[in-house]
Structure formats: C-alpha cells, structure tokens
Amino acid sequence: MSATRSPLSAFSTLFAVSALSLAVLAGCSDGKPATPPAMGPLPVSVLEVQPQRVPASVEVMAQTEGARETEVRARVGGILVKRLYQEGETVKAGQPLFQIDRSSYEIAVADAKARADQTERELKRMQTLIDAKAISQKNYDDALSANEIAQAALRQAQLNLSWTTVSAPVGGVTGRAVKSEGNLISVGDDSLLTSISQSNPIWVRFSLGDSDLLKLDGGRVNGKNVSGVQLVLADGTVYDKPGKLNFTASTIDTTLGTQALRAEFDNASGRLLPGQFVRVRLLTGDRDGVFLVPQSAIMQTEQGPLVMLADAENKVAPRPIQVAEWLGRNWVVTGGLQAGDRIIIDNLMKLRPGAPVAPKAPAVPGAPATPAAAAGKS
C-alpha cells in the first residue's frame, strides 16, 4: 500500500523552505550593495626595444607592366577562319596566332604571276628586237617598265597572301582574342586581334610626391641617392630579385606634382604578371639609432601615433612617437623611445593609463624576447 502526502503536509514543507531562504538572505544583507571581486593585473606581451641601424628607404605604391606591350593586328582583311594559340599562353616571336581566309589572296597571286610571266616573255622578245635594231628604244623601255610593274604586283600579292597568317611580332604572354572565328576582319581601326606582353624583364611604374622627394638628397632621384630597388608583394614579402631604375622623368608632373619613375626586375620565373599592384622600395642609405616596432603595437590618434609602455612599476604609460616608413611588418620609429623601453604589443583595447599589467614574453613570431621583457621590472 503506497503512502501519499496530504496537501497540508506539502504546504507546510514549502512554507518552511521559504522561511529558511528569507532568513538566510536577511542575515547576509547588511544594507550595502555587493561589490565584485577585485581584478588582478592584465596579462600583456611586451617587447623591449633597442636602437638599431636599418636601411633608409622610400616606399610607394606601383603597378607592373610588360617591358613590351605589343598589339597584334591584321594587315589584310577577310574572314577569320582559325585561332592558332591558347589565350594566355606564352608564345615565341614569329609563332602563328590567327589564320585569315586565303582563297581570294591565292587567286590574286595566280593572276599577278600570269601577268608577270607575260610581261617577262614580252621583255625577252623586245630584247631580241632591240638587238637587231628592229624597234625603237621607247618600245623596249615601255616593255621593261611593264615587266617591272608586273613583278612588283606579284611580290605584293605574295606578301598579302603571307599576311593571311598573323604571327607574333615579339615573344611574350598573349592576351584575350578580340576576334573569334567567323568574324570579318578589316584593315584599320578594326584590325586588332590580340595583344602580347613581354613580361621578362618586367617593368614597374610608380611616382614620387613632394613629401617622398624631400627625403632624398637634393630632392630628386638620381644615381647617387638611390642605392637599390626592392619590390614588396601584396602579402608583405620582398621579391627575391633586386631591381634597377631604367627611367627617371626629367620634369615634375604639373597636375599631380609627382616625378614619374620606372624600375626593371628579372621575371624569368613568371611570378609577376603585368597589371599587378605592388609596392616599390627605394633604398636611400642607412638610419642609425632608430627602433623597430610591430605595426599592430602602434595606435593612431588625432595627436599622432603612440605606443603603450609597461613602466618600471608595471603600469600602463602612453608614449607619443615619431615614425618614418615601414620595414617588413614593423614601423621604423625615429623619435619618442629610449633603449630598454617595454612596448605592450597585445590587449591594447583593454589598456588604461596607469592600470597594472603583468608583462610576459612576446607571442609574435620572430619578435625578440629578452629576460627583462619576459620577467618585467620591479
């Protein structure tokens, strides 16, 4: 026989639990709001910096272009019957690219050859007669001229026939075919078939503004104040082939206020393609006594760039700095820092001036860690 609880017994139990809960709350409350537990120092990674000697440079945006940008055009008209290359492939100079219908040009060659043969036979007959003094010199000269005209017409007809096969004028990378099979090709503005870009060597076109030119001795680019040229790719890596300047404008663009330049790089591997956006770095000497700071550790404010330091008491101390150019993933800092300063490189959004921090070794790959930076200063 199962036991059942009466409604009165259940109510009594519920009342007892509620009364106990109220007593506990009343005993724990002293009329003051509860305070959260105190927070400890914020863990941060710090990088102890020392003055260094680094290459001085000027870095600007640039765009690659082929050393030769050649248009492939038809020199005779007709129906395009075949494309003989794969778009985007590398071709050699003289390689056939397109075939225009040959029929009418073959007929023209046959007609011109018949006329040339006739005038040649007539000239031989006139030669016999002039030797026998049976005709006048004028008759002979007319036959000679007619033969020369006919032979020239034959050569022109043969040349037109050869032009029905459109070949690559230079070697390089082919572009998209402008015309497809079955299109009517006309000589003139409608004769463009494709283009060829010679990408080895490859050229890089860029310009320097007044602010960049002022960083150079004399305020202009010349062979003495530029010791080398580097190419920085989109992922931040430096191209493994050094470059050289092959064009420097002698005047300043009056509209943009810039000096146009061009550099040349070896591209035998075909890694660079015409039209890529890259960065060009002009090496202009060396900088002494500067500091390298990760880009992510520098904060841009209305008053200028600054970094957060961990001071001797392991508290946050903002420090305004002066920066120059990028060097890899670092900023070149020219002022505002001293040897041994410990720069906080993470958790920047959580930092407040004067707040305590717990320095630790940097987690940035490749960042040098020193014992002082890892242990902190007390």
Strand content: 35-45%
N- to C-terminal distance: 76 Å
Structural class: alpha+beta
| CATH topology type of the domain at 44-53 and 288-375 | conserved putative lor/sdh protein from methanococcus maripaludis s2 fold
Radius of gyration: 41 Å
Assembly of the depicted chains: single chain
Q: Which term fits the overall shape?
A: elongated
CATH class identity of the domain at 44-53 and 288-375: Mainly Beta
Query: Which architecture of the domain at 44-53 and 288-375 does the CATH hierarchy give at level 2?
Result: Beta Barrel
Instruction: Supply the number of helical segments.
Output: 5
Task: Give your account of this protein's structure.
This protein has 378 residues and is of the alpha+beta class. The protein is 23% helix and 36% strand. Among the domains are: 44-53 and 288-375, conserved putative lor/sdh protein from methanococcus maripaludis s2 fold, CATH 2.40.420.20; 57-66 and 200-286, Beta Barrel (Elongation Factor Tu (Ef-tu), domain 3), CATH 2.40.30; 102-163, Helix Hairpins (Orthogonal Bundle), CATH 1.10.287. It contains five helices and 20 strands. The chain is elongated.
